[in-house]
Design goal:
The chain is mostly helical and 302 residues long. The strands form two sheets. The protein has a three-stranded antiparallel β-sheet with strand order 1-2-3, with no helix packed on it. Strands 4-5 form a two-stranded antiparallel ribbon. The chain is globular, with a radius of gyration of 21 Å. The termini are far apart.
Length: 302
Amino acid sequence: MTLFSRIIGVAALAALSMFAVFLLWAYRPPINPIAPFPGHLFTPALVRQGERLANLGDCRSCHSITPMADFAGGPAIRTPLGQLYGPNITPDRATGIGTWSFEAFDRAMRDGVGRDGRHLYPAMPYDHFAALSRDEMAAIYAYLMTRQPVHATAPANRLIFPLQFRPLLAGWKALFIRKRPPLPGPNADPSWRRGAYLSEGLAHCGACHTPRNWLQAERYHRALAGGSADGWSTPPLDGTGKHWTSAQLETYLLTGRGPDGSRARGPMAKVVAGLARAPREDVHAIAVYIASRMAGAGPPSF
């Protein structure tokens, strides 16, 4: 064996070893399935709270095609790296989340890892959802687990090579995901504080209104500077674009009608449809916070 062939062999062995180490590092264990969950154990108040939160989080946009199949998955999500499809999140045991425990659901929402251990694509804004309290997460879980089960499988994702290899997402998260900081102090205006919490977390405004790098990670240092969503351009909300008052913005979020005659279209129309079902005080709080950002105020001082 020549020296060159030995060097090639050692290099190949080193590369295989590094790949094996990466796979071990990226591995996430599956969480055992649960037996059929008796939905009546959830209190009506908890389910109602979960419904309000799901509307604020705009869950239907990515997980419902028609009202007749709420949360049954299927909507296409276009990205520069390919096309994803929202999965079924009804409690169907074969094609939905009917076998998911709360721990599995919470891990998926916060860390982007499914019950089976697969890493989830960041079209799901788990970096934003990680800001939710455990009680709020439990309420959303209760709401979804009491929906009508629908047996439906979303189409297969169509992404450029090699992004179908999900362990790579562990590296992507390590490079780009930033944990959300805690809320501003209690001396902040209550509506603004609530709006900051919702906008930066559950409502995930930055997921669509923040520019992304070539690997589709949010550029956190340019938060709310404008971006794109499902093929649509989204305007900046950081003071470099329109300056709407909180009252004007609240009307827009509830009706889709802007003070300049504009109308919500594309993904934003779906957001408006969800917020129309949400508590008015929460929509008001989001409007107060985003209006402050549109007026040029900086991000929250956490």
